[in-house]
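Take a record.
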Amino acid sequence: MLQEAITEQTETPFLPVALTPIAQNQKPEKVAAFREIAVIKIHEPKWMPRKCKHLQQLEDLTASVKKKGIVVPILVRPLETDSASDVYELVAGSRRLAAARKAGLKTVPAIVRPLTDQEALHHALMENTLRQDLSAIEQTEAIIDLLQQALNMPQAEIINLFQRIAHNSSVLQNNVIQRKWGTVLGIFSALGKNWRSFRSNDLPMLGWPEDVKVAVRMQQIAPSKARIIARIEDPSKRQAVLNQAINEAATVNDIKTMRREIEGGPNSELCAKDLKAKAETLWANLKQSAVWDCPEKKEKLAGLLRQMHRLMQEPERADERVG
């Protein structure tokens, strides 16, 4: 019965905090004792990786908590803002804490550890990335949060760092970049993830339209399918395809067909207004890309610019005008 309760309430395959990479570098210590802490004294941090709690799973966990209580202690750290107030910040156990609140518990068992911001985020991330039901977007956002803490860099600069390394590894000759990239590789090694796959498959999700990201976050659609829908620029058309794909459990090929049909034939892209908008967006993205750091890509870009220049120099014929 106890093992069953542990299985129901553990947010990872019960990986003890002592087994995380940060703790592995520390001296052995006795298993931390837990204490009962008032629920109202525990606050969730803004960077808590789990941004979406699935309602049915929360209902099931709440039922377990009402029947058996909190079997697996949560992990908290003391807040230093006011030591006299005895207030804590949640590190791991967001679903258990939410279920305890929903069940009306006044206190919960908790292990208290004095962790730094980076250590706390690392523990929370390790717990969440080990969950099979965590969405791909939540994992990506959590890893970016951890990198922001570790590197003290904004999200845009972190993404740019990935692009620069991927396109031109010679930038690693810079000592500052080399040091930061070493930190990145250490984090990805600890998480058992490949940074190249993360850059190619996961990072682009952060730039998707919000309606598509919400659907992936709620696990209503797989990222491989959402990626196709995210390319639809018209919001109403995109929402229509998204709803149809979810309702019909459409395959990747089905969604590709939906996109072609709703966007129209090839002539639909010849509208001058649309072409100008696409050109402006492309130029804005180009200025922020890592293409300027890669000699080969700069040479290709120069060739494309020469083609565009020649195109603009060609005399316009009346039958070539577009609306």
